[in-house]
Every structure is written in C-alpha cells, then in structure tokens.
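Protein modeling request. Please complete all fields; requests missing the sequence field cannot be processed.
Requester role: graduate student
Desired output: 3D structure, token encoding
Chains: 1
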Amino acid sequence: MAPEYLAFIMLGLIITSIIIGIPVAFCLASIPLIFGYFVLGTRTFPMLAMQGWGTNVTYPFVAAPLFIFMGSLMERSGIAEQLFESFYHLLGRVSGGLALATVAMATIFGACTGNVGAGVITIGLLALPPMLNRGYDKALATGSIMVGGGLGVTIPPSIMLILYGAATGVSISKLFMAAIIPGVLLGIMYIAYIYGRARLNPEMAPSVSIENRIQGMALFKMTLKSLVPPIFLILAVLGSIFFGIVSPSEAGSMGVIGSLILIAISKKLNLQVFTQSVTYTLKITSAIVLICLGGKIFTGIFIAMGGDVGLRNFMEMFNLGTTGMMLMMLFIVFILGMVMDWIALIFILTPIFGPIISAIGMDPLYFGILFCTTLEISNMTPPFAYSVFYLKTITPPEVTIGDMYRGCVPFAIVDVLCTALLILFPGLVMWLPSIMK
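Delivered output (437 residues):
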C-alpha cells in the first residue's frame, strides 16, 4: 500500500482514538510513531527528538503560559464581579438586560482571560442565578453565558491564536490584531440578537425593577471603577503589540504584572491566590506542551509519508477554486470540532491545510482567523459541545442539557453569519494588521 494511503489511515485512527476518549497527547504521539517505524524505519526516532527540541525552543510559544497566568490571576481579581454588577444596573432596565450585561461583560473579560472553560464557569456563576431568579428563559440565559465565555478564544489575547501561530509560523502579533474586529463584531451581533429576541418576547427576559437598580452618579462611579482597570490592561497589552513596542511574549509579561497590580489594588493578592494561579497555569501549560509535542510528531511523519501531497491532490480533483477550497476546509474544521478538542485540531489540521493554502494563494493570516472563528462555533455544537459541559457543572438540576443545547442553536447561527461576513468582507480581518507598526 502506498505511504500516502497509510498516512490517511493513521489520521483516521488518531481521530477515532480521540473521539472514544484516549488522551489527545498519547494519540498524537504513539500512533504516528508506530506507523512511522513500519513505513519510514528507524529514522522515525531521531525525528521524535528533533520535534521535541523544536517545540521547547519555539520563542512565540512562551506567550501561552504568560497569558494563561494572566487570565488565571484576572479570574481571582474580582474584576468579573465588578463588571457584571455595573452592567447589571446599567442595562437591567431593558428587556433582556441581564443577558446583554452578560455578553457585554464577557466581551471585556474575555480579552483578559483568553480561555473558554474559565470564561464559561466564571460568567455562569455570576450571571445564571440572577437571570433564573427573574424568570429568564433557560435556553436564552444559558446560551448567552456559553457564547459570552466562548468570546475568550476569539478576542485577543487568545490562547487559540497563540497556538495557531506557534503551529503555523504565522505572526502572533498580526493574529491578535486581525482578531480584534471579528471578536468585537461577534459580541455586537450577540447583543443585537438578544435585544431583538427580548423585544419580540419580553416574557423571555424581563427587566429588573427600578427599586433594585442603582442609578445616577452612583452608577456612573461604579461603571467607571469597574471598566477602567480591565480596559487599561487590554489597551496596554494589545496597544504595545500594535505599535511594535513589544512582542506577544513580552506583552504577556506586561499582562501578568498588570494583573498582579490590579489584584493588589483590589486587596485580593495573597499566597493562596498566587499559588492557585501558578498551579493552574502549570497544569494547563503542561497539557498543552504534551499535545504540541504529539502534534509536531504527527506533522513530521504525516508529511514524510506524503499525506499532505495526497490530500492536496484529492481536494484539487474537485476543482472548486479558491473560495470553494476554503469553504471545504472550514467545513472539515466545523465537523471535526463537534467531536474533538480545539487544541488537537490545531495541530492535526494546520499541517494538512498549510500546503493547500499556499497552493491556492490564500493569505495564511486571513485563513487563520476564519479557522479560529469556525472552531469557536464548534465549542457549542453537539454532540461534544464543550461549553455545555463546562456550564453543566455549575447549573441547578432544573436546567437540563436540552435547555442548553436549545440555547446554543440560535447563537451558532449568529456565529455562522459572522464568519460569512468575514468571508464576504476580508478587510474586517486584514485592515488592522495592514496598518500596525
């Protein structure tokens, strides 16, 4: 059997193994090593050492643990609670105001954390009880929390963008800039949907009574106090990257220092908070490094077996043109994202798609943003909607998985519409990177 066919069998076995629950890092490393030994011989083993070394010395990858640490600190700073409290009183007077407050807070908080699980759980703990207590439709309430938490992987600094850049060689700085407009646009579209739905069906999302709201100068001071620290941190991190002052890794260091200062100001900085943040960062970073190593091994062996050439030839047989090939790749991302973790998909699909993107003349930066926004959709689409499972860990018994799936569907349609806008108007992605220093 030709090596390229064996490469596809290897890919199928990896995807099947991950779906049935075998750890991702083990699947990505062990299966390619077995296939590589029988097809390529003993030269497979030096490839393992080379790929491991290459993973450890990838400088852009340093940004990942720094931003994870920054996000972990921000979770414990109390900023999310302050933001939600401000938006609660600011938007509570309108129908759907609490859901609007959830997404508005998540848009800002997501830019400080960059993590789906952390965002969904933190926002859920804050926003779900008041929405259920005021008779919100359970699907709308849970849907707004899940998409709000998911904004963390779209709005920079995003761990997904860092890993995509590290896997493909695309500039992480430019990925951050390219994702700003799509991320904010997606948040605005969520808000527009919630507002329109609440206006059509006010009983689904009743407003907060006036006696339960802070108003006037007290509200202004509360909003200012809650908004200034996170916005200052975001502008300091992203602004320094935009103007070419620092690299993403250095910006991550600035973000960590800024987070420590904010926690100190809020009087929540203590040994327990610091230890919990460091421990969380080590756990997540260790898992990511192992998956990265497995992904690098898979990439090297898949290419050595000719799998990338075979797939490119197969897709070119359809003669779909540039747009058609792009849509086919995004469809593959969407389907696999329903059943697989996004980190694994980055390291499985990017080496396969890379040569195809070059062959059709598409900008890898532009495709990277489309790739990541499509992966964001998959976080809340069944059967393995990771945002649903994250939120279910903190929901009361009366909120069922069915309620949460019903809440995901309309927001997933909004996601698809946003991705369609990015395809129709590439300037939404490419403008900011084109003017950055």
